Amino acid sequence: SQTIHQWPATLVQPVGSPLSLECTVEGTSNPNLYWYRQAAGRGLQLLFYSVGIGQISSEVPQNLSASRPQDRQFILSSKKLLLSDSGFYLCAWDRTYEQYFGPGTRLTVT
Amino acid sequence: GENVEQHPSTLSVQEGDSAVIKCTYSDSASNYFPWYKQELGKRPQLIIDIRSNVGEKKDQRIAVTLNKTAKHFSLHITETQPEDSAVYFCAPHTSGTYKYIFGTGTRLKVLA
């Protein structure tokens, strides 16, 4: 069966510090991978998606970037965090359009 | 996909009553219509979906109905229970694209 992991589960970072969130998927090969952000009490905003190694598409211009160094690994990064980057970050993969989400990382920028 | 709206944004019902949430979309090419449930602090999970060749689908207490002409689909929950309390999201999708747009969410509270 397929499993999706994210870490860390929670993170508190000061403004201006770097960020690296990691997502890995097990039990499937060449998955489409997605990063979403959910602000407190809000909906899901698609940030990036990837259809293969090294292939990244950005949906929203911001100070975040994504990379896919391996088939089942997806990384979300920032060089300098902003207060507005706080939120719940969810990684997902899809199969026949159903999205399977990871457990999420709750990021608080102080 | 594209513009996606959900109504209502919040909904409170008495336990045992029914709840209906509506999702309106603008992209006439949409052909996959899911509903996700997100409990507090947890990840969203698919609870029911429908494809454009079907008008209604039911799974025990939940059902989804689709009106492609009017470009909306609805989630119906009957005999609501406290564990149905959560935020529900729609995410109409067009096959062949990778852009998933989620609705703004509906917070359902089932009062015991």
Helical/strand content category of chain A: mainly beta
Whole-number mean pLDDT of chain A = 94
Average pLDDT value of chain B? Answer: 95
Rg of chain B, nearest Å = 13 Å
Q: Please state the overall shape of chain B, judged from the principal axes of the Cα atoms.
A: globular
Oligomer: heterodimer
* Helix content class of chain B: under 10%
Radius of gyration of chain A: 13 Å
- In whole angstroms, the N-to-C terminal distance of chain A is 38 Å
> Largest sheet of chain B, described in full?
5 strands, antiparallel
Characterization of this structure:
The complex is a heterodimer of chains A (110) and B (112). Chain A has strands spanning 3-7, 10-13, 19-26, 33-38, 44-52, 55-58, 64-70, 73-78, 87-95, 98-101, 105-109. By secondary structure, chain A is mostly beta strands. In chain A, the strands form 2 sheets. In chain A, strands 2, 4, 5, 6, 9, 10 and 11 form a 7-stranded mixed β-sheet that branches. A 4-stranded antiparallel β-sheet of chain A has the order 1-3-8-7, with no helix packed on it. Chain B is mainly beta. Chain B contains no helices and 10 strands. Chains A and B meet through strand 5 and strand 10 of A and strand 4 and strand 5 of B.
